Amino acid sequence: MKVVLQNLTKRYPNRNKKIREDVIAVNGFSFEIPSGKLIGLLGPSGCGKSTTLNLICGLETPTSGRIFFGDDDVTDLPPEHRGVGLVFQNYALYPHLTVRQNILFPLQNLKGDKKLSKEVMEQKALEAARLVQIEQLMERKPSEMSGGQQQRVAIARALVKMPRVLLLDEPLSNLDARLRLQTREEIRRIQRETGITTVFVTHDQEEAMSISDMIVVMKDGTVQQIGAPQTVYDDPTNLFVAKFLGTPAINVFEGEVKGGMLYIGEDAVLDVSPVSDQKVWVGVRPEGFVLSGEGKLHCAMRSVEVMGRDKSVVCAHPAMAVENIRAILSSEAQPDPHAETVCFDLKPQKVHLFHRENEQRIPFGEKAEG
Ligand code: ADP
Ligand code: MG
């Protein structure tokens, strides 16, 4: 089931009564979510992720814009008639009911010609429980289970009616790190097996990048970029997106283009023609540094951190005044932690230029032509 968001906007009166202007929680959001895909809705707290999800499921009504499931305009349908499954951060299970009863609950509420026999309901509940691998826990109460198990029950309950669309709002935030990793893989598997179009909300870029077919990066209610995770990482549309994706974060320098050459401070580091002369922000991914005695970027060595698979060089440069630079090198590289300076060449595809004022990316080299 494809889901079409057409110029969705949601305004709220400001919670702070002294501020007269509305909060624009979601601002002109348009996107056609392809059928059967898992979409990661990503952005910092307050950027409008939950509001978007609540608009899709019908808990909120848009101020303007339309929502379609396939060819059905569902904008004015209440949530219970949209055929959506919902999972929230706090599992929201009924504490006095067993796992079986919790999963059965949405089926028992079906009315009229949708009403199911007891046997069919039991069968469907068992299938949903199997899908999330909790069928051996059917007689337990929520309090007798771990957070991860409770979240599986919540997912089973969302799936039992075979929704047209599955919506998950920060479903892993209450789990500890190990369970988070495991449960996100589970969600990916379940989504693949069922083929249900799914929107997964998170503020955690790694989580979104790892399981999504496509990610949508939001800021202040406005979509910044939509694309496959790797594409958005490799070709960020602006400085915000570049900084939001990737751990460790992208290194951002003050730079200047003069005669087609990019300068970081005094260092002439890269030919960036045909970019015209201007001051820029220079983003360099941690994996974009190549250790070299003749390297053009001259940094002050701070420390070398060895972490098994690779090494991090922590160093400083006057054009990156506030923070240290973090360069990730392969474990074979031999940076000298006692040297005063450390020099790098930069991999052009790992370097991004941004306008100083509007922070939009300025393509250079092949990307400028393409
Ligand atoms: P996220 O889920 O990305 O953290 P939300 O969608 O919850 O963000 O909120 C987006 C913005 O809308 C925030 O500024 C929030 O304070 C505001 N907001 C959300 N719900 C309401 C509401 N009911 N009334 C007023 N402002 C709201
Ligand atoms: Mg939220």
Q: Describe the main β-sheet briefly.
A: 6 strands, mixed
Number of domains: 2
Strand arrangement, largest sheet? 6-7-8-3-9-10
Percent range for β-strand residues: 35-45%
Number of strands: 21
Oligomer: single chain
Per the CATH scheme, the topology name of the largest domain is Rossmann fold
**SSE-based structural type:** alpha+beta
Alpha carbon gap, first and last residue: 34 Å
**Over all CA atoms, what is the radius of gyration?**
25 Å
Q: What spatial form do the alpha-carbon principal axes imply?
A: elongated
Considering DSSP H and I runs of 4 or more, what fraction of the residues is helical?
Answer: 10-25%
Low-confidence parts: none
The level 1 CATH classification of the largest domain is: Alpha Beta
> What's the mean pLDDT score?
94
| H/E series | EEEHEEEHHHEHEHEEHHEEEEEEEEEEEH
Work out the helix count.
9
Bound molecules: adenosine-5'-diphosphate, magnesium ion
Question: Under the CATH scheme, which architecture of the largest domain would be assigned?
Answer: 3-Layer(aba) Sandwich
What is the CATH superfamily of the largest domain?
A: P-loop containing nucleotide triphosphate hydrolases
